[in-house]
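Sync notes, pocket subgroup
Present: LS, DG
LS reminded everyone that the earlier model was apo-only. Rerun requested with flavin-adenine dinucleotide included. Inputs:
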Amino acid sequence: MNQEIKKMFCELLGRDHVLTDEPMKQHTTFKIGGPADYFLVPETGEEVGEIIKICRKTDTPYFILGNGSNLLVGDGGYRGAVIQVYRNMSAVTVEGTTITAQAGALLSAVAAAAKNASLTGFEFAGGIPGTVGGAAVMNAGAYGGEMKDVLVEVTVMDAEGKIFAISAEKLELGYRTSVIKKAGYIVLEAKIRLKEGDQEAIRERMKELTIQRTTKQPLEYPSAGSTFKRPEGYFAGKLVMDSGLRGYQVGGARISEKHCGFVINAGDATAKDVRTLMDNVRDIVYEKYGVTLEPEVKFLGEFD
Ligand SMILES: Cc1cc2nc3c(=O)[nH]c(=O)nc-3n(C[C@H](O)[C@H](O)[C@H](O)COP(=O)(O)OP(=O)(O)OC[C@H]3O[C@@H](n4cnc5c(N)ncnc54)[C@H](O)[C@@H]3O)c2cc1C
């Protein structure tokens, strides 16, 4: 951490919005991760742009964080600036059948707004614990729906600080991927188009999906959701289970007994525990089935 750089961030955002040596375990659903040199909480796109200017001028790497629900941060933490786009940038407005949400809005908040306005099509996302920004990047999906089905347009900032809108067709939204990360864009806002529906039916569907999640997923433990991507023609959780790895544990990291697609933090897991477990699981599954499991969860920072 460099005092001069900290001072620049403080002058821009105010002291309350600049944390240093901030434990990332407090900002990830895995509850794992060492300290970030700088943890910044901007409130506007303009501030995000100014942060990036400082980062570029001072050669400071930066990372955009949403709710940290698809993220494993190394035990050594992150040498750079984590820019949090979350509650600080989370306005949601509804106009006709279009919802405009700032990137930091939680999907659950957007789903609630949709339900309140009797709009259908977003029920699938209500239980995904991410932000609109993280969901656009990942093309998050569940129960037969995905962001690709509902996104109309995303407003982004590029690495030069230029802000512009991109239509959803140009985002190359695929299975848990988009062009956003590759292009280095920061999502600031998204427009979502839904259909008029029956409020009671929407409420029922959301309730049904919540029950499915709570009965099938180990929500009582910290995790980052599905740890591996679904390999073509298979289910990652089933491959792991059929490999005899239900409950397999390395340190505090464990393959959930409830859902073998989830690695859970069963108590004081380190990032190293999770990485070692993931590597071992990948090798064992490959040996048994000749299928390579690829991580869905993103890695950030220093692991050794
Ligand atoms: C219990 C549980 C259940 C889950 N269920 C599902 C599910 O059903 N379906 C599913 O798809 N996922 C699921 N997930 C994973 C996760 O919630 C999603 O991937 C979600 O979209 C991640 O959003 P986030 O805001 O937490 O992103 P983060 O984890 O903070 O970040 C993920 C990636 O997106 C980038 N990013 C975040 N915000 C922005 C932004 N504004 N601009 C540019 N880049 C950004 C980050 O840099 C990072 O690369 C689940 C996770 C958990 C813990």
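DG: Residues 29, 63-71, 85, 103, 128-131, 133-135, 137-138, 140-142, 180-181, 186-187, 217, 219, 223-225, 298 surround flavin-adenine dinucleotide (CB under 6 Å).
LS: The chain is about 30% helix and 25% strand.
Action: DG to write up.
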